[in-house]
Amino acid sequence: MILFSFLIFFSSQAQEKIQLWKGQTKDDYRKKKVFLYCFLSENKENKASIIFCPGGSYCYLAKENEGFSPAKKFRDYGFNTFVLIYRRGIKGNRYPAQIQDLQKAIVYVREELGFDSLGVCGFSAGGHLSGTSAVYYDKNFIDDKPHNLKPNFNIMIYPVVTMKDDYVHKKSRRNLLGQHYSLGQKDSMSLELNIKKTVPPLYILACKDDPIVKFQNSQRLADTLTNNGNLFRFRLFESGGHGFGINPNLIKSSDKSAAYWHEDFILWLKAISVARE
Questions:
Q1: CATH number of the domain at 17-276, please?
Q2: Which residues of the chain have pLDDT under 70?
C-alpha cells in the first residue's frame, strides 16, 4: 500500500547528492557524472518515494523544471523524492546506459535507504526512460544480483513512447540508439510493442498541441494498455504544449489545467491504493 502523509513545506534545498556509480566507474568514466539528488521527507517513518527523470531528448536535462521543481512539490505531498542525473547521448552514451542509471537509482533507494514503495516519474525523453523501467523491470541491466526493480507505479508526462518512424521523436531516438540501430533495438525501445499484463500502474499525460513529441505517442500506449486490460490513467488535454513540468506559466494557451496534473495523479493514486487493500 502506498503511504500518504501530507506534510508542511520544507526547505527547498536538496539534502544530499549521491554519486551512484562511485567505485564502479572503471568500465565507463562517464558514470562519474551520474548523480541522484535527494529531497527527503522530515517524516522518518515515511517510505513512499518517487524518482524523477528530467527530459531533454536524451541529449540534455531540464533539471529545474522537470526535476527539482516537481521533486519539491511531491515532497510537500509527503514523498521522499529524488532527481536522477542520468547519462545522455550528447556525451556518447547510448542504450542501455540510461536504464542502467535508473535501475542503479532504484536499487539505491530501495536497498540503501529502505524505501520499498517507489514510483518513477519522467518527462518527455525522461518519460520514455520511466516507461522502460515499467516494461523491463524483469531484466537486470546492472549486475547479476537479485533486485526488486519493479516500480510500484510510473508517471509519464508528455512522453516519448515509440521509436517507429510515423510518430517518433527523432532527436530522442538518435541520442538513445545512435545513427545505426537494428530493427530489434528500435522495436524493443518502442514501449507500446512490449507492454505486459504485469506492468505497474501507469499515469500518462499528453497534449494535442504538443509541438515536440506528438501526442499519438501517448495515445498509442494508452490503446495498448486498454487492449491488455492494464491499470492506467490517461489524461489527454487539448492544449498545454510541451516542457511545462508543473509550471502553468510555461503553458502559452489560456487553459493552464494540464500543469496541475499532479493534483489529479495524487487522487488517482489514492483511489487505486484503496481499491487494492
A1: 3.40.50.1820
A2: 1-15, 276-277
